[in-house]
Amino acid sequence: MEAREASKTSPRVRSALDALERAHLRKTPQRLAIVRAFVDDTTHPTAQQIFDRLRRAMPTMSFATVYNTLDALERAGSCRVLRVHDDGSARFDPRVDAHDHAICETCGAVRDIEPAKRARLPDEGDLDGFEVRAVERVYRGLCANCR
Amino acid sequence: MEAREASKTSPRVRSALDALERAHLRKTPQRLAIVRAFVDDTTHPTAQQIFDRLRRAMPTMSFATVYNTLDALERAGSCRVLRVHDDGSARFDPRVDAHDHAICETCGAVRDIEPAKRARLPDEGDLDGFEVRAVERVYRGLCANCR
DNA sequence: ATGATGTTTAGAATCGTTCTTCGTTACAAG
DNA sequence: CTTGTAACGAAGAACGATTCTAAACATCAT
Lengths: 147, 147
Known about the structure:
Two copies of one chain form a homodimer.
Chain A (H helix, E strand, L loop, with lengths): L1 H7 L2 H12 L6 H10 L8 H11 L5 H14 L3 E3 L8 E3 L6 E5 L5 E4 L10 H4 L3 E12 L5
Chain A binds a DNA duplex through helix 3 and helix 5.
């Protein structure tokens, strides 16, 4: 029973719902379902993949709601959008702390990577007045499975 | 007259055409026009922008030909595709040597950045068997104009 | 409980990109 | 030079991902 209770309020689910609250966004059943289906997923799913998972439990769920909710979560600061594939499709990442991504050129899998210790920014001179607010690093290559 | 001659065979134009030849791709008038319109452009244009420039000189140019040619150039190794904007649209970059990009969150401009000296890869342990073939670094922030 | 406001639904619309069909052109072999 | 073959380009239709629209509905502060 403790496990069941914990699954309802896993730390990530709780933090996503708190973020919605802070942003004055309503906690609707749809949003709750999407948060639960997505927030502990490290595979960087597409909106379609999240939608497919939810159809079973909420058959009336609209595709637009998935986009709207992920958008709301992003505005609330508990989700990020990633565009790392050739087709430009959006992948959603529930991790919002600093981290990088490795993309397998063969199978397309996206994996979180801890950033290099003492990673460097370009020399100020090379930035030429540009003010860096965020850094994204993408490693392209072959995952352990595909090698 | 030297200037005119040089403009017809700028080093980048020549290198792009050589690359086409090496890849056994034909040097058609359309491809030549696209190469000339694009190869010295550091603004990372969309296919639409390149198409608009060419309309004047080649009114019959098809939109698909722009994509096909940029694709051919990419396969030939003298162009890269960049997807750094929220809409996932493709930007084309004639620079194929190692460099990074800064994206202005206000105006959307994309600027080439020289990579940091001694930039680091993540620790092998964190890569967990992933074989890195290429690294892309994107800096998001404010360009000198928009600050 | 109630109402103002925010949200969902379903499907249409949009946007960037790719595909398809067919006519044209380049190049090679004779 | 002529012809065959494959590559290429034009035009527009098709496609897939995402966003918009209008109307019905649900949430939450009061």
